[in-house]
Specification:
The complex is a heterodimer of chains A (226) and B (242).
Chain A: H1 2-22, H2 24-45, H3 49-70, H4 73-82, H5 84-90, H6 95-124, H7 129-156, H8 163-190, H9 196-225
Helix pairs in contact in A: 1-6, 2-3, 2-6, 3-6, 3-7, 3-8, 6-7, 6-9, 7-8, 7-9, 8-9
Chain B: H1 9-41, H2 55-82, H3 85-117, H4 125-146, H5 150-182, H6 197-229, H7 234-239
Helix pairs in contact in B: 1-6, 2-3, 2-5, 2-6, 3-4, 3-5, 3-6, 4-5
Classes of the chains: A mainly alpha (226), B mainly alpha (242).
Chain lengths: 226, 242
């Protein structure tokens, strides 16, 4: 049974990655949304390097939050519409693991690209080398939590009126701790305080989300499909 | 006595109807006594002047806002676990009162902060987490409103309430650390000078008044919810005139 569950998870991940590869525009939209939002801030705030260096951690992290939230509708939306989700729920494999696989695929296609481009955007804000590395690490640790917690919101709002705006209302307050410690880590590193404490707490949150969120998402999916 | 007797909407509806006037009466009497103590009996604070009297509304509202969220999550969880209709209705009925209390706490806090701190708003840990609590209430209410099927709305909102309840302490501590890491907290609400006992009495009376009001409001709302959902049931039709 364990082997079949593993095979099912791999199949789900492979399928979602294949779909993402075939519909590249979906993935690229989120990616460029992130890049554009971050690039808008210097235009609004002014090009003073000191100010930019100060606001960079918050700007990049808030943009990451918004990008993650924007991509949530795609996590289950298409599968819900064409009935695939129902079949997933009916399979004998534990739904929690299948949900986890879908979240993993979602993170690989939307979270990971943000993590990789973030240091380049950090350069635009004149962040020093240490802070750039911390930005990368903090996003690497924190964005999985965004995908995991977001999955609960995405599952709850499946097929509901005003889905997108509603999802943001449900999910953004729950993202607050991740934002606080993610941006806090970069700020701490930029001011020479050391980011280890922030990063540990961020990791703790991601792990907690890893334990609770798939379970809550599976429950929410069953409710949505009733 | 069989407590589960009142877990059915049909039996709870008249019971709630009998309880509402009592709690409303307690709320009014205690509210008047509390306001008398707050506005006339309690002495003027020598540091803050008369502005401190806002706490007689502010503190009870802030306590209720947090407590109601816990109670709401509790009923939502019971409704989800045991599939009891009345528990979910109770959770829905509590949410607007909780949101109202959160709003009152924030609003009166701003009125208190202006003369005392010289600012309508500061990003203090308590203020920020209270604001996020308001967002959680609003998310809950809009999810309930967005789903047409009441049973699905019950369960979906219950999951959200429970996820929120797990998150509330995390949010509180993260905001607290966030603030202390950015700057030493220059203003603290916990450093209140030891209160005169008349002030404390007034505040406790007001707290109980808010409790009674919240219970009465939630019961009235749950009665409406019961009537709305059971409108096709024989017992509702038999009530007549409703």
């Amino acid at each position: 049974m364990a082997a079949t569950a593993g095979a099912a998870c791999r199949a789900v991940v492979a399928r979602d990655l294949l779909i993402a590869a075939r519909r590249r525009s979906d993935v690229l939209t989120t990616f460029f949304f992130f890049v554009i939002v971050v690039s808008l801030f210097p235009l609004g705030v002014g090009p003073d390097p000191d100010t930019l260096r100060e606001i960079a951690p918050g700007v990049v992290w808030v943009a990451a939050l918004l990008a993650a939230m924007l991509s949530l509708a795609r996590m289950f939306g298409a599968d819900y519409a064409d009935g695939t989700l129902e079949q997933l729920v009916l399979t004998p494999q534990p739904l929690t693991l299948l949900v986890l696989s879908k979240v993993l695929a979602h993170w690989l296609t939307t979270g990971l690209p943000l993590v990789l481009i973030a240091p380049v955007l950090g350069l635009q804000f004149d962040l020093p080398g240490d802070a750039l590395a911390t930005l990368l690490v903090s996003l690497l640790i924190g964005t999985p939590a965004l995908s995991l917690v977001g999955a609960v919101g995405a599952a709850l709002t499946l097929g509901v009126r005003g889905g997108g705006a509603l999802t943001s209302l449900l999910v953004l307050p729950l993202y607050v701790p991740v934002l606080v410690f993610g941006a806090g880590a970069v700020t701490a590193s930029a001011t020479g305080m050391g980011a280890a404490g922030h990063l540990s707490l961020l990791g703790a949150m991601s792990l907690a989300a890893l334990v609770f969120a798939p379970w809550a998402t599976a429950m929410a999916l069953r409710i949505s499909l009733e | 006595m069989n407590w589960f007797k009142y877990s059915s909407p049909q039996t709870f509806y008249p019971l709630a109807g009998r309880m509402v006037p009592w709690f409303m009466g307690i709320a009014v009497v205690l509210g008047l006594v509390g306001l008398y103590l707050a506005l006339f009996a309690a002495p003027t604070d020598f540091q803050q002047g008369d502005a401190y009297r806002i706490i007689f509304i502010h503190v009870p509202a802030a306590w209720m806002s947090m407590f109601i969220y816990v109670v709401m999550a509790f009923w939502a969880g019971i409704g989800l676990a045991f599939n009891t209709r009345l528990s979910s209705m109770m959770a829905h009925a509590l949410a607007p009162t909780g949101a109202l209390m959160t709003f009152i706490a924030l609003w009166t806090g701003a009125f208190w902060g202006r003369p005392t701190w010289g600012a309508w708003w500061v990003w203090d840990a308590r203020l920020t987490s209270e604001l996020i609590l308001l967002f959680l209430y609003l998310g809950y209410l809009s999810l309930v409103a967005a789903i047409d099927d009441p049973r699905r709305a019950d369960k979906a909102s219950a999951v959200l309430a429970l996820v929120g309840a797990i998150n509330v302490p995390i949010i509180y501590f993260s905001v607290k650390w966030w603030n202390t890491l950015h700057q030493g907290s220059s203003i603290s609400m916990t450093r209140a000078p030891s209160m005169a006992s008349i002030m404390l009495t007034g505040m406790l009376v007001m707290v109980f008044a808010f409790w009674a009001y919240s219970i009465a409001a939630a019961l009235m709302r749950v009665r409406c919810e019961i009537l709305d959902r059971e409108r096709n049931a024989a017992w509702v039709k038999a009530l007549g005139g409703v």
